[in-house]
Design a protein that fits this description.
Length: 372
Amino acid sequence: MATKSNIQIAGMLAGLGHEIRNQLALIVGHSECCADGSLEGKRITDTLRLVFLTSRRLQSLLDVVLNLCELESSGESAQQVPVSPTALLESVRLDLGEANDRVELSIHGPIPSLISTDRERLKNMLRLVLLSSLEECGPRGLRLEVSVVESDPGNAALFMDVIAVDPQHPYLSVAGVSDLGFQVSNSLCEAIGGELSVLRRIGTPAEVRILLPAGPLAELRMMDAKNDLNLDMEILQLRPLEGARILVAEDDEDNQELIRYILDRAGAGVTVASNGLQAVEIVEKNEASGSPFDLILMDLEMPVLSGYLATQQIRAKGHDLPIVAFSGNSDPASSTSMKDTGFSYFISKSIGRAGLLKCLAEFLRATTHSSS
């Protein structure tokens, strides 16, 4: 006997087949125009951007449907791992490619520094919601507003509201990839413990509201993420880390992607290690090849070998380069023992991007002056 979820997935797959054919026809048609030389100049660039966005949207749709099928076939519950909401949201925006310029991220008030959720499935769901919303919202793009609400007494939820910047932009399509995208996103959101609702008035872009459990209010460590989003563009334009070789030791994939993006845009050459043991091995390899790092950004809690032990091993091997402890723990008491462990400096992950670049630039400048 078919279960309710089986019936829902079967209905989605039927709609998915239609959309796959439509979207692939669009991708093939535009790709052919680029390949046969019938387009020139800016039209080639614009067409390739459309091909990328269509491909990304189709990939996201398939990712979410496959996530649902995985959960249904395995009978398992969604995974629960610690996730930084700000890092995850920025990572989702970066996944949109050039379309991320049309998504404004706005955080209202303090939000949890970490929540427990199914990271990969949440990322897939949010990416599909944003890409589906971009289908409707017009050239001015959309705004993703994030805040914390009390879902029930004593418990908090992360509230995300996806709104068109121009809510009066005419939207004439009755059904399409956006509707299917919202439908499968809603099912996946429910599967990972959240709620998703789509508010639509005829002829205008949809508003999507997402509610995601964050945990007991009393147990959450809150942080003000506004400064983290208001990136000081002047600092990036100056490229304060130009030419610096930096090793980032970080096990969280979202943080890896975000930190690499920030440091790369600031002019640094970035290498990533996913645990402390990898960090030690990479430092040794680069020293032996004559291209040592100028600085290491070291997370404290990592698998295989912690940041503390990795730093001790690097120091024991005689390397005196700056090692900056980079942790979500902003308690000043935890920084007093940093130098005893071998760290040069301590930075809280809540410092924000502009603050991070300023600090790293100062550390590198101080190291250069002391060695000259």
